[in-house]
Write a structure and sequence with these properties.
Elements (H helix, E strand, L loop, with lengths): L10 E2 L5 E4 L4 E5 L2 E6 L3 E4 L7 E5 L8 E3 L13 E7 L2 E9 L8 E4 L2 H4 L5 E4 L2 E3 L10 E5 L4 E5 L2 E6 L3 E5 L5 E3 L10 E10 L3 E8 L10 E3 L14 E3 L5 E4 L2 E2 L6 H7 L1 H4 L4
Antiparallel strand pairs: 1-2, 2-5, 3-4, 3-11, 5-6, 6-10, 7-8, 8-9, 9-10, 11-12, 13-16, 14-15, 14-22, 16-17, 18-19, 19-20, 20-21, 22-23
């Protein structure tokens, strides 16, 4: 009986792109119009970008809706020189699609995701499940596991959360996040905000900001009121950015990690960008 290969099927191009075929059926829509429907998508990782995107065989794309870009987005997407505007019902969506210069990806077209960069296609589906922000990375794992550790959270010396019943969320490439029951959080010290983000692994989050005078980034607390089934254990629990608060676990003070979120939390201009 044959065996699956143990090595990842990721290939590298001279331009520094990583790519591999995906077996998922992927569809992308602009409004109610299906612009791409593919059973042979390719996952592509650009240099320095931690999340993948999809590229599709031209035969699976509605090329009749694409026009050469009036104002190409030069300097983006790893040397890409060919960009397309999407023309639909008299509306033009600038630089919604592009091709990579890599020979390995010749004959493929990639698309922007509106909820990630503010332009491109509105809705994306892997099989029949809608996904958000970016494709899910097959080499990334997210586990939500109920625990009994003693977790204490402080802001500027003030205890804001204390629990012995956290749910620990382990996500590849990120620090452990501690999701805490609302009864164990001093939520009166925080104000709800209208900020929201989407995650292809967890769902859509809502946020709270610190009411005090300490120098704390806004939206430092979040919760998923309706998480995706795979992480259902975090429903309505609250988490804090390890990067911006002091967390003690079983008596051990955790170091504040440096992550891709560190710059976003400290730079107001970065916080205004689409999630």
């Amino acid at each position: 009986m044959g065996m699956f290969p143990t090595e990842r099927a990721v290939r590298t191009t001279p331009e520094g792109l990583l790519w591999e075929p995906s077996e998922r059926r992927v569809r992308g829509r602009a409004g109610e119009v299906t612009v791409v429907d593919s059973r042979h998508p390719v996952l592509v990782w650009e240099p320095g970008v931690p999340v993948p995107l999809y590229a599709f065989p031209r035969a699976d794309v509605r090329e009749d809706l694409l026009r050469p870009a009036a104002h190409p987005a030069t300097g983006t997407h790893t040397g890409s020189r060919v960009f397309y505007d999407l023309e639909l019902d008299g509306e033009s969506r600038e630089n919604a699609a592009w091709t990579f210069p890599a020979a390995d990806l010749a004959g493929h077209i990639a698309f922007e995701w509106f909820r990630r960069v503010g332009r491109g296609l509105d809705h994306w589906y892997e099989e029949e499940e809608e996904i958000f922000i970016h494709p899910r990375d097959p080499h990334k794992r997210v586990d939500a596991i109920a625990g009994s550790r003693h977790v204490r959270v402080e802001i500027d010396g003030t205890a804001v959360a204390d629990t012995h019943r956290p749910v620990l969320l382990f996500e590849t490439g990120l620090p452990t996040r501690f999701y805490i029951p609302p009864e164990d959080v001093r939520l009166e010290l925080f104000a709800p905000t209208d900020h929201g983000t989407g995650c292809p692994y967890k769902g859509t989050a809502r946020y709270w900001s610190w009411r005090g005078e300490a120098a704390v980034p806004p939206n430092v607390v979040w919760s998923y009121p309706d998480p995706l089934p795979a992480v259902g254990a975090i429903k309505n629990l609250l988490a804090f950015y390890n990067e911006a608060v002091d967390i003690t676990v079983d008596g051990e003070v955790l170091e504040r990690p440096v992550t891709p979120f560190t710059r976003t939390l400290s730079d107001p201009a970065e916080r205004r960008r689409p999630s």
